Amino acid sequence: MISHLVVFLFFPNRIYCSPCLQAKDRTKKLTLLVLLAVIAMSLLTLVISGLLTISVFKRNASGVQSMESSSSPDAATIHYGIVIDCGSSGSRVYVYYWPPHSGNPADLLNIQQLLDSQGKPVMKKVSPGLSEFDDNPDDASEHIKQLLQYVVDYIPKEKHKETPLYILATAGMRMISKEAACEDENVKIGVLAVKMLPRFYGEYRSLSNACFPAWAIRKSSPSHLSVAHFTMPRLSAIERQQAIGRLNAGQSVADVARALQVHSVTIHRLARRYQATGSVDDRPRAGRPRILTPRQQRAVVRSFRQNPFQSAAAVGRHLISTRNRVTSRQTVSRVVVRADLYCHRPYRGQVLTARHRRNRLNWTLAHRQWRQESQEAILKDLQKDVTKDFDFLVAENHFEVISGKTEGVYAWIAVNYALNRFSHTAGDGDMIGVKLADGKIHHRSRTVGMIDMGGGSVQIAFEVTNEEQMQKIPSQMIAEFNLGCQEADVEHTYRVYVTTFLGYGANSAIDRYQAALARNATSASKARSSSKKSRPLPDPCLPAGMPLTTEADEEKPARSFIGTGDYMECKARMELLLNVSVPCSRDPCSINGVHQPEIDFVRSQFYGFSEFWYSMEDVYRKGGLYRYPIFEKLATDFCSTSWTKLEAEYECIKSAWMSVVLHKGFRFPITYENFQSAQLINGKDVQWTLGALIYRTRFLPLRDIEHDLKYHSSHWMKSQVFYNEYLIILCFVIVLAAIFLYMKRLRLCPRRADMSRVPSMSYFMTEENQMEQGVRYIKGNGYL
């Protein structure tokens, strides 16, 4: 009894309920552990699913794709593209490849030129050009098939159906005007120089609305092909100013003539007079002196002997400014001719020699009936036969004749792509802020400019980011395009100023210079006609001691010259051929009065190709970064070197022409240090065909992006279904565990009705055999 009391006093609950309470403690601990495990598993599941989500979005919005050349192409994942450049002298095929797109809409395709087993680009050229198949368009496809048969072995057969093929024609096919032949028999000869003579102010001339006048071939034209002469009507001063303004704005002569309701010859003559005199004011008539004084005549002759390359109009303006004597161009010309001299005629186009005129006349006579159908027949024949014999991916717009402006844009794209200037990640070089249409500033990599001097033309292209400059540039000189795969892509939208000056290439400049030199040499030969033997005329643009004899034709006999190697004098004479004194409608201007927006020479960078590289590297071994003082010294030493020690006889005049075009024509300062000549960029030969493929395949990444999104979306949905099923199973297990624990608890803890009653203190304080009031003994159940 006493032991019961002690236990009751110190451990009242342990004696009778300890098994139950211990079971409860164990159950609580077990339940707590189970709940903690459930929470941990849930958190782990959420973390894993979150990481998968982040990985999917990171892949779709990853960093900029590396533009470096990939390793050896894997035929299973690599895509291919073919571009054929159909030029005037021949056709060339180029093969490119690119790996799958990264999935980021901000990335461009990583297009690289395919190399053969020897590490050389896969390229082949065949002659002649497509324009030679005008009489037999059906033979054009056989000409192109040679190129396709060559490249078909470099592309896996299973990839042919998805390989785009582009056949793009350039200079040769541009000679076919859309309105090549006029109905008037008198001017059918005008098709002769559709794209070979420059437009007014140096741009390409489009003869889609008018034929080229027959007087362009001058004395070489047969009499029965001459054009009827029209009387030039009198235009008011306002109409003359309007005509010149429209021409400067980029309108053609035919468009201006229709707008003013006059003949096109009237506008053309007005343009010629404006180009020669710089004025369209009414010419002086009654009251001006017809004959100059002997002193003034001697001054005119002396002026021409000092500078034989000046024009009669320039001398006339000089007389007005210095002697207050109003003198016409015809008066000065008559005085000069009487002195056995010839005036310099301002350049109005590509100067043609007699041989060139004969060749073009013969070509024109042979193609008198050549219409637009001939061009279309060639392209249709290519499209029909190529699609029949090859499985390449083609469309109707894959067979086109591109303009010179488009070709320049493609070249600009190729150069900047090779330099990785279309990657806009911070830290990828010099960045520039471009103002968008909504007023926001977008930062991206600064692009480079390009100057390409060929044999017949020179071309300049650079990006314009200033909105004020954009308002001044004529629409035909600016190209706005988007290289991104989305229409609203602001990261790859560019506005590029591009202009081509036909007739200002290196070879054309030499022909023009020699033609002017030969004209002035005629007067000198007449003065020495009494001598038994004529001595060669000195030429500062030829290396010292170099002899030169021009070809004889029906217009002039053969002429002989001897080089003096005076580089500075050569530059002074070549500068006159730039026509930089032509009035400019919109300042600033470059060659021939063509508007050129201002260039930021502090931050800009330019690359020179073709003649820039050949002159700097092949002759002077100084290709790459250009430095004016170094180049001038090398050119001066080269020109003064005896010709017997030289092999490149024309590099003296080419160097002079390159220098004046760069610094006098395009107005690059002589202290400019960000110009460099190049033939390869990052070890790769850059062609405009690369830019054409980049632009024309810009929407292909959408296919990879859509496929990537579908794949990861389906993968994510499958993973979500997997994790949802896992969570349901886990919850089911937890519920079963809870039920099991509850049942075990019920088994361990006795029922309250079965628990022994504990006697009260009154029971211990009563006498023996005496019942406490209120306490009743129940047999079998103890006390209540």
From TrEMBL:
Transmembrane spans: 32-57, 726-743
UniProt signal peptide: 1-17
Coiled coil feature spans: none
PROSITE patterns: GDA1_CD39_NTPASE
Presence of the UniProt keyword Membrane in the record: yes
Keywords of the record: ATP-binding, Hydrolase, Membrane, Nucleotide-binding, Signal, Transmembrane, Transmembrane helix
Record GO terms (molecular function): hydrolase activity
Family affiliation: Belongs to the GDA1/CD39 NTPase family.
Name of this protein: Apyrase
Native source organism of the sequence: Batillaria attramentaria
